[in-house]
Amino acid sequence: MSIETSNVVAAIDGTQVSTAVCDLAAWAALAMQAPLEILHVLDKSQYPATPDYSGNIGLGSRSALLDELSSLDVKRGKLALEQGRLMMEEARERAIIDGVAKPVLNQRHGSLVDTLMEMEGRIRLLVMGKHDENLGDHTGSMLENVVRTLHQPILVAAPTFSAPKRVMLAFDGSETTRKGVEMVAQSPLFKGLPCHLVMVGEDTSANRIELDWASEMMDEAGFEAPAVLEQGEVEKVLCDYRAAHDIDMLIMGAYGHSTIRRFLVGSTTTNVIRGASVPVLLLR
Asked: N or C: which terminus of the chain has fewer CB atoms within 10 Å of its end residue's CB?
């Protein structure tokens, strides 16, 4: 199977969440009738292809020792690549069990962000896991870097997978979330699933008009789409609504405007993703 196409890409790293990433990506690929590509990138900052100890020579080290250290690092890198290859084979077998006919494997040695930038033209949906220790409030976490760089939808897996039965779209009337409504309405990924539309803001006629537009779009597409406008802190309203209505997937714009912009750009986004026991789909 050619990988020069529009794929669902599952980025796995061997941690516990990789199993959920694989299952979620397989579910998405089957629903979207898209090829599944399983990606593993061995981080070159941890496993350099050609270790360089030249900076230590001035400390009195012997060249033989430096050569041995370099050799050990090369062996370490090769072992990590082989471990990654075995991990990908297991992921392929799991995807086949999930129902995907011919998953494609893609192993790289470099930077995840750089690799995804190179692959972006053939990515239809990226699925990756969350690591709470990497979801700090600081700019520069891996997930944040990927979200800021990639211009394709990103589906962040929860620790365990179960097929969604209800989804919720955080709507604010911005261009990003209006496109999100159109995407959800048209995508086979959500066909047959109730989609709750939740807008957080003042109860104004302008907000009501925007929410009514979204509701009509979903109704015309045949969706059961309850729509609510609630006031309060964005993070709390969305999280409380999700819990109260047993929502299986949260959909939001990665970088919108108005209220949701502050919600998504700041630490609140990482808090929601960290606390979510369901997948989160970030739209661009």
From this structure: N
